Amino acid sequence: MEHSEAGSHNMSSGNGPEQRPSEEELAAMSRDELVRLGAKLDGVEIVNYPDPWPVKGTRAEKRAQRVVALWFVLATLAGLAFLAALIWWPSEYRPPEDEQGHFWYSLYTPMLGITLGVAVLSLAVGGLLYTKRFIPDELAVQERNDNMGKGSDELDRKTIVAHLTDAGERSTFGRRSMIKRTLGLGAGVLGLGTVALPLAGFIKNPWKDPESPDSLAHTGWKPQYPGEIVYLRRNTGDPQEISLVRPEDLDAGAMETVWPFRESERDDPEALSAALKRSDTPVMLIRLRPEDADRVVKRKGQEDFNYGPYYAYSKICTHVGCPTSLYEQQTNRALCPCHQSQFDILQYAKPVFGPATRALPQLPITVHSDGYFIARHDFIEPIGPGYWERKS
Ligand code: FES
């Protein structure tokens, strides 16, 4: 609708009593009359309201309809391609040495971008074309009008409803089933994609290969073969700088975050970097003060998981997985900054405040003959938030 302000037009400023039809007259008015009356009461004169297709069912009209539908079909196809890429395209990192794997992996993000972009663009072009070809190009002139904040009465409500219904009717959208169907399909597929995108990362089969370190039941601390030694290392910022941890490195009351290191990965930059990035591996290594170490209540079955005053707990909050990074040595509590859950380190890190309901899993540790901390084995329960199959 084009509106132009024309203060010089001698039109009613609206709602004057002489303009108002009686209730009977109002009830007898057609929708078109109501639209014009409503516009007039608002100080708007509809100068021109042409039907873009005065002769119905012409070949040109049908062609225009097909073009719009074609864009919506394209949006549907691109949306489906987006979903397919999201689900089936190889998305796991492949090192450059694996030339073919790396090539397909490197196309994953561009594929998502291109298909989603084409889907959104096609939907937008279809919508624009529909507006251009099928919505009447109304020309109206409006006076400056200050209604002084008066509310709507029955007349205003009736005329505005008539105006809206009229706009919907004149758009002819209701009777163009080809356009409705293709638009519904395109928008539906796109909607599915936008919902599926954030959810896709969570889709994992927890029963698939339950002994793999990648399953939900295991972490990067799981030895890859019986007897493999997994050290505790710190992250210096350089994945290739191996800095192992000894008991004397921590003062009483100190906490350090540690990750797994295995000798087989010493000369493998990819593996070293990956070990530091795994979301299930960060562990808080805590050295209790002597007076606190005497007061520890250990969890049943985990009495030997600590090494003297050294305790290692998963850093992944059991509420929704934030890092429980804040260890307060005076209270011996680990605090999760996300929703303020607190875990009592003197009582096997059980939650004592906040929304978390499970204790932080404890990593069994000891000191190897070379003087460095090692993990005795993986966690004995899944780390992080609960899920249906989790038993602890
Ligand atoms: S994620 Fe830790 S309290 Fe919510």
The CATH superfamily name of the domain at 230-375 is Rieske [2Fe-2S] iron-sulphur domain
- Name every ligand kind in the structure: FE2/S2 (inorganic) cluster
What's the CATH architecture of the domain at 230-375?
A: 3-layer Sandwich
Low-confidence stretches: 1-18
Number of strands: 14
Principal-axes shape call:
elongated
The top level CATH class name of the domain at 230-375: Mainly Beta
Strand content is 5-15%
Question: Which structural class should the secondary elements be placed in?
Answer: alpha+beta
In the CATH hierarchy, the third-tier topology of the domain at 230-375 is known as Rieske Iron-sulfur Protein
Characterise the protein shown here.
GO terms for molecular function: 2 iron, 2 sulfur cluster binding; metal ion binding; monooxygenase activity; oxidoreductase activity, acting on paired donors, with incorporation or reduction of molecular oxygen. One of its GO terms (cellular component) is plasma membrane. Residues 1-26 are annotated as: Disordered. Residues 273-374 form the Rieske domain. InterPro entries: QcrA_N, Rieske_2Fe-2S, Rieske_2Fe-2S_sf, Rieske_Fe-S_prot. The protein is an alpha+beta fold. The protein has a domain at 230-375: Rieske Iron-sulfur Protein. It is built from nine helices and 14 strands. Strands 4, 5, 6, 7, 8, 13 and 14 form a seven-stranded antiparallel β-sheet that branches. A four-stranded antiparallel β-sheet has the order 9-10-11-12, with no helix packed on it. The chain has a three-stranded mixed β-sheet with strand order 1-3-2. A hairpin with a 5-residue loop joins strand 13 and strand 14. The longest helix is centred in the N-terminal third of the chain and has 30 residues, at 59-88. It starts with a strand and ends in a 17-residue tail after the last strand. Mean pLDDT is 86; it is low at 1-18. FE2/S2 (inorganic) cluster is lined by residues 317, 319-322, 336, 338-339, 341, 354-356.
